[in-house]
Amino acid sequence: MQNYIVNDDGNLELRTVMTLVPKRWGSEQIVVETEVYQVKRLFMQKGRECSMHYHERKHETVTVLRGTLIVFFESQPIGKVTLSMGDCLVLPNGVEFAHRMSAVNEHCWYLESAVAGCNKDNIRIRL
């Protein structure tokens, strides 16, 4: 898989694909990172989930590419949201939007789009 970008001169450039970063629940890969935004491609293994966490600054949008992703909320009345291929969910920042994601029934591939500069903005509540 290759990543291309149209530069300021209108020419097409091939960008090096970043290395997959293994996680206990699957893996993530930064696809695009600019001064303004970042896009990650994430893979979550069937039966795995990330920790319950929130972001102080990071405002993110999750888009499911393949599989089913369940997003559980710590303290929101909706409790959980089930996302399938093509579904998007906007997650605001703040402790009141603490969440965890789970691939209960099948592997899941999804994109996470967020404002740039928030890579260290994960506050874990519990694993």
Question: What is the CATH architecture assignment?
Answer: Sandwich
Fourth CATH level, the homologous superfamily: Jelly Rolls
CATH topology: Jelly Rolls
H-E string: EEEEEEEEEEEEEE
What order do the helices and strands come in, and which of them pair?
Blueprint: E1 3-6, E2 12-15, E3 21-23, E4 26-33, E5 37-44, E6 48-49, E7 52-54, E8 60-66, E9 69-73, E10 80-83, E11 88-91, E12 99-103, E13 108-115, E14 123-126
Antiparallel strand pairs: 1-2, 3-4, 4-5, 5-13, 6-12, 7-14, 8-11, 8-13, 9-10, 9-12
Give an overview of the whole structure.
With 127 residues, this protein is mainly beta. It has one domain: Jelly Rolls. The protein is built from no helices and 14 strands. The chain has strands at residues 3-6, 12-15, 21-23, 26-33, 37-44, 48-49, 52-54, 60-66, 69-73, 80-83, 88-91, 99-103, 108-115, 123-126. The strands form 4 sheets. A 6-stranded antiparallel beta sheet has the order 3-4-5-13-8-11, with no helix packed on it. A 4-stranded antiparallel beta sheet has the order 6-12-9-10, with no helix packed on it. The chain has a two-stranded antiparallel sheet with strand order 1-2. A hairpin with a 6-residue loop joins strand 9 (69-73) and strand 10. It starts with a strand and ends with a strand. The model has no long low-confidence stretch (mean pLDDT 89).
Key features of this structure:
single chain; 14 strands; Jelly Rolls; 127 residues
Provide a short characterization of the protein structure:
This protein is mainly β and 127 residues long. Helix content is 0%, strand content 54%.
